[in-house]
Amino acid sequence: MRYILFCLSLCCTTALATSEPPRLFGRIVDATTGEALPDVIVSAGAGSTTCTSDSAGYFSIDSLLSDGPLDNEHALHFSLISHQSHTIHIKAESADTLLIRLPRKVIEMKEEVVVYSERTSYHHRVATKSTSTDEALHGIAGVEMVRRANFALEPTLRGAQPQQTSIVIDGMKIFTACVDRMDPVTSYIEKENLQKLEIFKGGFDLSKSQAVGGTVNLISKKPSFGRPLSGYAEVGYESTSNHRFSRNVLNYTRTNMALRTSFSYRQAGDFKPGGRGAVANTQYAKYNFKLDAAKIGKTQRFDFGLLGDNAWDIGYPALLMDARKAQFYLYSGEHTWTPIRGPLHQAKTRLYFSRVDHWMDDADRDVGRREVMRDMHMPMFGKTRTWGLLENLLFARPEQTLELVLDFYYLRSFADMRMLSVFPDVLPMYLLSLGDVSRHHFAGVADYNRVLSTELQWKTGLRLDLASQAIHDDMGQRQLAAAWDTRQLDNQYLSPSFSTALEYTIRPHTRLKLSLAHSSRLPTQLETYGFFLFNPADGYFYTGNPKLKSERSRQIELGVAYDRQHRRLNVSFYYNQLSDYITGITREAIFKNYANIARAYIYGAELSAALPLSTKLRLDLIASYYHGHNSDFDEPLPLIAPLENRVELNYNAGRYDLLLAARFVSGQTRVANKTTLEDATPSFATYDSHLHSRFSKNINLRLSIENITDHYYHEHLSVANFPNPGRNIRLTLNSSF
Ligand SMILES: [Cu+2]
Predict the structure, then answer these.
(1) Ligand 1 center to 393 CA (angstroms)
(2) Structural domains present in the chain
(3) What is the pTM of this model?
(4) Distance from the alpha carbon of residue 333 to the mean position of ligand 1, in angstroms
(5) Maximum distance among all alpha carbons in the chain?
(6) Which of 333, 382, 385, 527 could form a disulfide with 415 if both were Cys (CB 3.0 to 4.6 A apart)?
């Protein structure tokens, strides 16, 4: 009824508009829940007209336009203690019905990056480059990538080790199958299937996973209910490894149903590092597909999805073996319920199943010439199966939100290896790298946000993890029982985590944030039950420790953020103290056991800034520094990236965007040589340029030249000093309809 009255009054106003100064009507709602917001202070101009919204969120201003010329723009300002202030600029003629969605004040613990966007905008810096998932991740301050080959880089956050960084897809836990970490979760989702990346640095957000380093949440693309039929196609080429790729997306929707399907194919030959010839055995090939269906009702939505990835013939010259085949399938179904009334705003229930299979071998290697396992071929196989349930309840009140998460999964993982001598008289041997391990893991999370005053917000999180694990294969049990002299191999874990943060607005555009966390991480199935795992970084064979305790971490972070009219500055300082840190300890000769050590710490700082130099030109800066120390061994922690600075100049001129980027990385001399064998890495600088041109509304061409000087270098986080690509010319052409 109120809405009808509103519309009627609006019609009257429009009719009268020609003779009298027009009145302005509008409605203000909560951007999260869509609920009406009463008592919002609406002011027009400096100290002039002010009114407040009524109980249904409606407001009207009578004399807004009477004090200025009609074509003048008028600023309308909305403020409410529990929500972010908002200003809009309207013109007299366009003074129409307004719908204002005010976002609530919540403390954000994440950084978001849009990876794939059909319509690239000025602010989608990463999308402009047309990058891969790996490159998009590396573009964020605080994210470093571990390189093992010309394929599947693995992200780590804030100087943490790869196993301390959790990677999830839409919150779903995926367990990789390769015992040599060749298949990080990020390698199983292509960019056309990524809506965005959510990066949670440190252990301050507990809702997605249990991690001491942080969490990367890969938010996948869902079907769109926009136009009846839409699509996207891209073809591209990269010169440095003769990499050819094609990506295709089709979206169909009818009334309340929508379908989306995607398929991509990539193939690369041997890649060339800077100034040198191609590195043999660095090729790869893969295809990826995603199929989704969605149905919406008035308050409900159903989603079904299948994501599949198949890669083969992937060369790893820095490791002992090459990946023959890597397969991944993820099936999921989700029900979303958004009640119209009541404090429960949204309930999401998701069921999922993932299967990962991995085959690797050294069939193409000359095993007679290597130092480790000479004259022996060792084909390996690994698999994981994960069944999971995610329940997410969001309660929202004007000044507070409460999110409850139930996160359960059941994991089964297995890996084995055959040892086949090149000499016919030597009998073949068999080894279980992971003897059929099961894990039940249940987590309950509560995340609470509250606005304390206009300047102050508070957030706190609680998480409780309960897990039990066991090894089921007889031979696997015997191997570990002999190594540890015990039959008691099962283990239970109970670990609470806690985090809290305060955000204080010191000035209208400047915020100060203090975060504290006490978090923990369960050991991985390889750290507890792995057997005879070769680590190419130090040449040792590792054995899992069934009695490992959870790794614990205490963290503090202080951040300052300034944001005003595209001028941005973010600086954060953090300290992470780890106890019961999990690492390898030498047992004898070339054998190590996983063990908890008392103490290690990492501290560091990150800076990111954006400075518009003119309406078309913008300067971006990113810098990061980490310092890690293993207190027990009194040596630096391994895989800590050195000081890094990036400068980017972005020029945007209608149909063309030009991006010039320089990256300066210092040398790293702080290396670990007791717990692992690292060497120092020299400093380097690289320069890239990216050109993006829009031929028409639907056709885009991108041309990139990376590592322009063709410099030969490797990152400190590169296994066995595997080099980065040399000068690379990338050309992509895409069209959408
Ligand atoms: Cu592998």
Answers:
(1) 38
(2) 2-102 (2.60.40.1120), 110-114+125-148+181-222+229-736 (2.40.170.20)
(3) 0.89
(4) 29
(5) 104
(6) 382
